[in-house]
Each structure stands twice: as C-alpha cells, then as structure tokens.
Amino acid sequence: MNVRYTNEHEWVRVEGDVGTIGITNYAQEQLGDVVFVEVPGVGRKVTKGESVAVVESVKAASDIYAPVSGDVVEANAALADSPGDVNAEPTGKGWFFKLRLSNKAELDGLMDEAAYQAFVKSLG
C-alpha cells in the first residue's frame, strides 16, 4: 500500500485514484482522548493544504488538512458516535474521509514512512 504523511501528521493511503485520509498515531497521542470529530461532506472539492475536518480532544481542537487535492467521495460518519476510534485505530477504523485524487503528482511532496518516522524523532 502506498501511504504518505504530512508535516501536520495526516496520512493518506492511496488505492487506485482514491486516497483515505486520517491522522497518525503520533497526532492522536499528542491530542489525548478524542471526544468529537467533524468530517467534510461528500461531494466537497478540497485543495491540498485546506482545512477540511476538525478533531477535538480533552486537550485541544485541531484542524485536519487535506494532504492532496480532490473530491470527497466518502466520510467516516461512524466517528460522530465513536470518536474514540481515532485513538484506538488512527490508521484503521479512525480514518476521516476519502478523496478522489485530482492530482496524483501532489503525493510526491509527501513523506514516506521512513521519512515521517525520522521527522517525528526530530520533534524530540
């Protein structure tokens, strides 16, 4: 699977021309217990770097940014009732939304797993 990461701790897993987006384990650890998630509506066009979702925890609220541009084709509505899935399985059940990618070349600017792990280590 092709998974890429951003400096803001989002991940995108690409299958064909659809990318599934969520936050990393590091991000959910920093947030603490997630109590609310707002996901974008299906059909919304998003641009790389645009704030498209919100995650709130007992510590803070954070915007989730689109790691790539595209059209939202699915949103994880289950997070409304089970926001803790973001903590339990940030790269599994805790995904936020899926995009039909409009520019696959944008993936080239994102980190692979090794680069992301090195980035996290550099944060101390």
Tell me about this structure.
The protein is 17% helix and 37% strand. The protein has 124 residues and is α+β, with helices and mostly antiparallel strands. A six-stranded antiparallel beta sheet has the order 1-2-3-9-8-5. It has a three-stranded antiparallel beta sheet with strand order 4-6-7. The longest helix is centred in the C-terminal third of the chain and has 10 residues, at 113-122. It starts with a strand and ends with a helix. The mean pLDDT is 96.
List strands and helices in order, with pairings.
Elements: E1 2-5, E2 10-15, E3 18-23, H1 25-31, E4 34-38, E5 45-46, E6 51-57, E7 61-65, E8 70-75, H2 85-88, E9 97-101, H3 113-122
Antiparallel strand pairs: 1-2, 2-3, 3-9, 4-6, 5-8, 6-7, 8-9
Tag the structure with descriptive keywords:
6-stranded antiparallel beta sheet; alpha+beta; globular; 124 residues; 3 helices
Query: How many H/I helices?
Result: 3
> Which secondary-structure class do the elements indicate?
alpha+beta
Q: Please mark out the parts with pLDDT under 50 across 5 or more consecutive residues, or reply none.
A: none
Shape: globular
Strand content: 35-45%
Give the strand order of the largest sheet, numbering strands 1, 2, ... along the chain: 1-2-3-9-8-5
What order do the SSEs take from the amino end to the carboxyl end, as H and E?
EEEHEEEEEHEH
Query: What's the alpha carbon Rg, rounded to whole Å?
Result: 13 Å
Bin the helical content: 10-25%
Summarize the biggest pleated sheet: 6 strands, antiparallel
| Count of DSSP strands | 9
> How widely separated are the two ends?
28 Å
Give the overall average pLDDT: 96
